[in-house]
Design goal:
The protein has 414 residues and is mainly α. The protein has helices spanning 3-27, 37-63, 66-71, 74-97, 104-112, 119-129, 138-197, 199-205, 213-234, 237-252, 255-268, 270-276, 284-294, 297-315, 320-347, 355-363, 372-380, 384-413. It has a single domain, classed as Na+/H+ antiporter like fold (Up-down Bundle).
């Protein structure tokens, strides 16, 4: 497959995202007003609770077996490495460019989280069916490609809804705390200004040198409250551990994560799997129903992304420095790191000789940011417009970046 053939294959899923985003942006305009902010928030919650878990569950149950889980054991480690390296690079970028507080978690999420949802499922099987494919028989290659892509989507969703979710949540909490502090400070300054302007009237009514018993009592109450807050903040080590465990459990109980676990368990147990999949499966209607629900995930996510894009274009709140930084991390630094990681793993005998499996591992380092980041931005009401702007620019560049790195990776593996 030549460069232009690869460009066409890599561009297909990217163009799908851009076209549906454009439709979502048009639906959110004042002309149609079909996707206002409240509608996007409600639709986003449905995607989070219903559509995404259904998509992950059905993909795993259909395409992953116990043998696949054993043979592809390095894939979750590889995805974890992409998240770790991208997160570190994102943290360094935040320290260097010093963005607004509410954008810190978003930048780290953009740098660490790739699109494991639909790009690999479309792109890798398409490369297999091309006449110039270097991965052997078309039928066998396509079957393995779907299995690899589905497995990567499941583990990518797991990391996304644990690591990335934590980044976005921490950023939102920090931003909300800063906003509350600023509001309290502004309120206090306004009260001080009012007191200063009316100082002469107060002096005439009450002598400033003496405090009433009620004033003294109020001061004591304020001091006791502040001391109590300090004690609560300090806390004990056991309280902090309990709080951390609760946070981890809450993240593991997120609907997409539960869908991943359920799909892996049912896919790994043949007799349960045969109850749901296959032409003669007695519970096939359940699997078919969940497939219908899962099919709505990508379109709804992309429509929401386009709707947020309209506000982002109006506000233009993302500077070129942030956009270029995210692109450099995702399309230059991470792909180079990926070559070193996979070569080292191959030399140590950690990955099978299968060139298609190694290609999938490599291409994970060159994917554009995951669209689920926009879901989290909506859930926490932080950086929605900035997220849409970053998505637009990174996906415009993704077709050429994916094509270039796909060519490089196939040349390395040939």
């Amino acid at each position: 497959m030549g460069f232009w053939g690869l460009l066409g294959v890599a561009s297909m899923p990217i163009l799908q995202v851009l076209i549906i985003s454009a439709i979502g942006a048009f639906m959110a305009t004042d002309y149609l007003n079909l996707l206002p902010s409240n509608t996007r928030n409600s639709l986003n919650k449905i995607v989070f609770v219903v559509f995404t878990p259904s998509l992950i569950f059905t993909s795993l149950v259909e395409s992953v077996t116990f043998q696949d889980i054993i043979s592809m054991w390095f894939m979750p480690i590889n995805i974890g490495i992409t998240f770790l390296c991208g997160g570190i690079l994102g943290w360094i970028a935040v320290k260097l460019i010093k963005p607004k507080p509410h954008l810190e978690g978003l930048i780290m999420a953009m740098c660490s989280t790739g699109n494991y949802a639909n790009l690999l499922v479309i792109m890798v099987p398409a490369i297999c069916t091309d006449n110039g494919s270097p991965f052997g028989d078309h039928v066998i290659c396509k079957a393995k490609a779907l299995s690899y892509a589905s497995f990567s989507m499941a583990w990518g969703s797991f990391y996304t809804w644990t690591c990335t979710y934590q980044m976005m949540q921490a950023s939102a909490l920090k931003y909300n705390a800063i906003k509350e502090t600023e509001e309290l400070s502004n309120h206090a300054n306004q009260n001080t200004h009012i007191l200063d302007t009316n100082n002469d009237h107060i002096d005439q009514i009450m002598p400033s040198s003496n405090l009433t018993s009620q004033d003294i009592e109020n001061q004591c109450i304020v001091q006791q409250t502040s001391v109590g807050n300090v004690k609560k903040k300090d806390g004990s080590i056991s309280d902090k551990l309990v709080a951390m465990l609760k946070k981890i459990v809450n993240q593991l109980l997120a609907p997409p994560t539960l869908g991943s676990f359920a799909g892996l368990i049912i896919g790994a147990i043949p007799w349960i799997k045969h109850l749901l999949t296959g032409e003669k499966a007695p519970l096939r209607v359940i699997q078919d129903s969940m497939i219908l629900l899962g099919a709505g995930t990508i379109p709804c996510l992309t429509l929401i992304l386009g709707g947020n894009l309209t506000q982002g274009l109006r506000k233009a709140s993302v500077g070129p420095t942030i956009i270029i930084t995210v692109m450099l991390v995702r399309y230059l630094i991470l792909p180079v790191i990926g070559i070193g990681v996979i070569k080292m793993a191959a030399n140590m005998g950690l990955v099978p000789v299968d060139p298609l499996f190694r290609f999938v591992l490599l291409i994970m380092f060159a994917l554009p940011p995951g669209v689920n980041i926009s879901t989290m931005a909506e859930l926490f009401s932080v950086g929605q417009e900035e997220c849409a702007m970053l998505m637009m620019w990174t996906y415009l560049a993704a077709a050429f970046a994916l094509t270039t790195w796909s060519s490089v990776y196939m040349w390395i593996l040939s």
